[in-house]
Amino acid sequence: MSETMSESPAVANASGAIVATDDILSRSSSASRRMERRALPPGPEGMPFAGNLFQFRADPLNFVTAVARSYGEAATIHMGAQPLILFSRPEHVRYFLTEQPRNFTNREFARNLTRLLGDGLLTTDGDFHRQQRRLVQPAFHKKRVDSYATTMVQHTSEMLDRWTPGEALDIARAMQDLTLRIVAKALFDVDLRDGHENLGQQFTNVIENPVQLPFSLRGLPINLPFTTYGRNMAARAALDAYVYGLIAQRRADGHDRGDVVSMLLAAQDTESDGAGLTDQQVRDQTMTLLAAGHETTSNALTWTLYLLSEHPYVLERLLRELDDTLGGRAPTTAAIPKLRYLDWVFNESLRLYPPAWTQGRHAIASFERAGYVFPAGTMVMLSQWVMHRLPEVWGDASAFRPERWGGEAVPQGAYFPFGSGPRMCIGMPFAQLEMRLLLATILQRYTPKLVPGWPVVPRPRVTLRPKYGVRMTLVPSPLA
User: Fold this and answer.
1) Which of 206, 211, 184, 179 shows the shortest CA–CA distance to 195?
2) pLDDT digits (tens, 9 = 90+) for 268-326
3) What is the mean pLDDT of residues 396-424?
């Protein structure tokens, strides 16, 4: 998901669903009031009424890291009147995401995304979520995912053909444009450069003009073209018109074109009543996959290219592996399992810069953890950023060292860039294949180098994006 979908820092689930801190501030449920009267884990002192809201907003990553290190496995953070319990040990990740997932819902942390995406996989819970996941799952079976490999490599090669040696560009923007083109082809069987450029622009307009409730001054519900709200609503209407038009066209011709929309239209729930997806449900799932399908992958590629630029010895070893395995040939699905070091590099990049850096859950019933009894309604916060950098788990936690993935045991729950349990990201196979094919293709032509002095600052919103982009010079690869 794009960080620009919410200007406020937000608690996000592993697949990107969020609840903005403005929503947390406005929520004062009876459950939270009951929690205030009971013992909670200690946490940082906050301000009257606002609690820790301003501390969190000022520097979310350092704030949650400091809280975890100061207060241990469980700490209470107040977002206004609403307490959140930050759990910071692998065993807690296992408990919430894998062992007791049905006691913890996600929808309370997805209000902003529901307004944009509807009832997709990121924003629903319970039986409805499980039914929808069954219907969407065939779109990500291995055979169908592998069928997109040629498209992924072809689109990347076309991008590289347009690059010029010595040119400096924003790699973050380049990766976003590339992955959006790829996911649009996989979802819709359309090329955004072939008369469909407006689709990409309208999607950009939605995520760069966020609208929240309660509305901030810049997002007042005034439907005029020059307002944030007006631009957001116009872009959403254009996207809806496009997607619904595509759905109507596909239903009319009844032909499976090999894209995800065709798969969704053909899906039937054989474990229930055999019903398929309605047009609204196809729209919601398509918008969800469009948003999630390019945002996390583009961020992962950007951070990986940045890390390789800063660690030339890692880049050199990776280039040797690419040369030995591919010998100048385009990467294929058959070659990917042989690229072991490439796999380590991505594991380590996702550890240090997880695109989804935090997630949340809401307790349906009371539960016990860390020596406390928490009532129904408890808001739980987990953070990949914190967990992936625990010194007691990782040792040299801040170091970019892909070799650690060559045999060091990692406790279950300590590493979860794609989530875990029944809500693990359904598009993980697609993303993993795409990241590896794209990077292997790029590095055989160019080894981008960070422009000296360029500030690279993580900006945590819904996803972890570089605040100022990542400007890099296109250095021809020694493999070219």
Assistant:
1) 184
2) 665 666 677 788 888 888 888 877 778 889 999 999 999 999 999 999 999 999 999 99
3) 92
Task: Return the pLDDT at 438.
Answer: 98
pLDDT at 140: 79
Residue with tokens 């689109």: 155
- Antiparallel, parallel or unpaired: β 372-374 and 359-363: unpaired
Structure confidence at residue 43 (pLDDT): 96
HSE (side-chain half, CA atoms, 13 Å) at 203: 26
CATH number of 3-473: 1.10.630.10
Distance CA 156, CA 442 (A): 7
- Identify the pLDDT of residue 208: 61
What is d(CA 375, CA 385) in angstroms, rounded to the nearest whole number? 27
pLDDT in tens, 227-245: 777 887 888 888 888 888 8
Q: Is 204 exposed, middle or buried (0-12, 13-18, 19+ CB in 10 A)?
A: middle
376 pLDDT higher than 60: yes
